[in-house]
Amino acid sequence: MIQPLAIATLAGERGLAATAAPLPLDELVPGEGPWEVEIGFGKGRYLLRRCQEEPGRRFLGIELAAEYWGTFVERARRRGLANWIALRGDALALLSAMVPHGFAAAVHVYFPDPWPKSRHHKRRLFDPETVDLVLALLRPGGRLLFATDFLEYGALVQEILESYPGLSVTRRDRPWDDGARTNYEAKYLVEGRPILRLEATLDPGAALLHPRGAQGVLVAV
């Protein structure tokens, strides 16, 4: 059964149908700390740790799976953490309709579904016609951090990001300094499975659309 879009904070949870768009993030989690976003946080291993270790920062998490979303919300509340918002729903839909632009100091995307079949490519977070929804979250100087074990898809993501004007991209040749960030990554490190990791920084004045994505918009018009 498809779960309705929902939002949760320490104070409670509700559906998004009657919620203002874009979300008033600073009202939902008051403070001066910078925002970070994790798209597809799973059971929340990394998001929970960051919320706990850095109470001065604020975190927005997006997860489609209701069970995983609920697991994170329960654990965050049990620990008394207040510096988070958890959105439940399809990331592309939420990014296009509910989440503000240009507010995040960092965006984290780890082991997203590669949607390998060509008819499913439009569901990918990183495609020339969807990558702008992800990068639009970043403020100037903001960073995107990405990892996947699906190397073919990772190479495509790297190519898409490297061809994005105003985005500086580096392929990381070693694990993250703080260790595995997801349960998948911890498992794959033990197995010795290759992982492609990327770090990208958005320069001031970067383009609003990927060139191939902009071409697709013009064709549609």
Question: Which key phrases capture this entry?
Answer:
single chain, 221 residues, alpha/beta, nine-stranded mixed beta sheet, 9 strands, globular, disordered C terminus
Percentage of residues in DSSP E strands: 15-25%
Question: How many helical stretches?
Answer: 8
Major sheet description: 9 strands, mixed
Low-pLDDT residue intervals, each spanning 5 or more residues: 215-221
Shape annotation: globular
State Rg. Answer: 17 Å
Helical amount among residues, as a percent range?
Answer: 25-40%
Average pLDDT for all residues: 91
The tally of strands reads: 9
SSE run: EEHEHEHEHEHEHEHEH
Give the N-to-C terminal Cα separation. Answer: 35 Å
| Major sheet strand order | 2-1-5-4-3-6-7-9-8
Question: Could you say which structural class the secondary elements and strand pairing correspond to?
Answer: alpha/beta
Give a structural overview.
With 221 residues, the chain is α/β, with parallel strands linked by helices. It has helices at residues 25-28, 45-53, 66-78, 91-97, 131-135, 151-162, 183-191, 211-220; strands at 6-9, 12-15, 35-39, 58-63, 84-88, 104-110, 138-148, 167-172, 196-202. Residues 215-221 have low confidence and may be disordered. It has a 9-stranded mixed sheet, sandwiched between helices. It has 8 helices and 9 strands. It is globular and about 40 Å long.
